[in-house]
Amino acid sequence: MNSKSINGKSTEDIKQALQNSLVDGFDPTVAIVFMSVKQDRKAICELMDSKNIDVFGATSCGEFTNNHQSEGEIAILLLELSKEHYAILFEDFVDENLDNAVSKLANNALKQFTNPSLIVCSPGVNQKGEHFEGEKLVKSLEKSLGPDKICFGGMAGDDWMLKETFVFTNYKEAKYGIVALVLDGDKIALNGMAITGWKPLGITRTVTKSKGQLLYEIDGKSAVELYLRYLGKEDKIAEKDFKVFEELSMEYPFIVERDKDETVLKTPMKIDSAEKALVIDIPMPEGSKFWFTQPPEFDIVEEVIEKASELKMELRTEADALLIFSCAGRQPILGPMTTDENEGLAEVWQSPMAGFFTYGEFGRVLNGRQNYHSGACCWVTLKEKA
After folding, report:
1. Taking the model in full, what pTM does it have?
2. Is 167 within 8 Å of 123 (Cβ atoms)?
3. Which of 103, 105, 146, 383 is the most exposed place for a label (fewest CB within 10 A)?
4. Which has the closest alpha carbon to 70: 129, 13, 153?
5. Please, what is the Cα angle at 258 between 63 and 201, to 5 degrees?
6. Coil, strand, or helix at residue 328?
7. Cβ of 175: how many Cβ atoms within 10 Å?
């Protein structure tokens, strides 16, 4: 499989970059497109369609390719892949429930290939304007496909506006839909992992009162007051504390126990002053065990790259292409280190790369089960089997 990554600030930039990529006989069949909601999706799809290139697309919260990271632009990974080895599936679930849409998509994937592997993108926000139910999507996919099937991907973004996100193909797009690049697992190998890098701090804590996304009590104490003290606010809750919360909370998520020997990051997004509760991006049911986190440092990035290097050595394989689905929260927290992280992964695998900053990630931790993630760098390589 041959691949190339291109990027641009406009449709015209992409048109020229695409033309330049074809001069050596490169003949792509698939375009994996990550682009800002501000860009013209229809024009990009029409451009790819004019070259007989199938589109798998999602809007972003920042996008990147080899040696280039941007906001408000377009990043594309072009794959020269036999049409017998892939299919692009799309399900719009605005008029039906998520489980039905996922079941349809999974059944179609199994009709295409006996051993399908999937790259999946979903909405980032739901019909209510809330964080999309990524965990529900993954569980539904696992139920329909089986736990052994490989699936990586991310939730679409909209440049931090949290209003409308889109997934799309050549002729279809949806605010509330799923797009999947289905690969023949007997012909194309996917290898990757989801990893956060955050480290636990102090003792294990327990959620003692919660309802949905509202977290009221931790260890029998006010969750708001305890969390603000953790952020360095010792006094009573005041209006000025809300600004401190907005600036710091994303840097200090919770590490929550999940499955056997596996954790997930869950982040306090804001304070509901009327309820006197923390609003968590992913619900934390009563009884949940978790830790506060240490301040983020450069070793977060070092761990991501180190684990990738170890996996490459263990598998003794190369990569034809690399996709990265990185949580949108990593960029404001890690700053320029996110570029180091993305470029470091591309350097490890020595392959064309594209990715975007997401509102949630799909993948597996090393030796773990299929799961939804928050705050993670989730990467996957594609390699055509001999």
Report:
1. 0.91
2. yes
3. 146
4. 13
5. 80
6. coil
7. 19
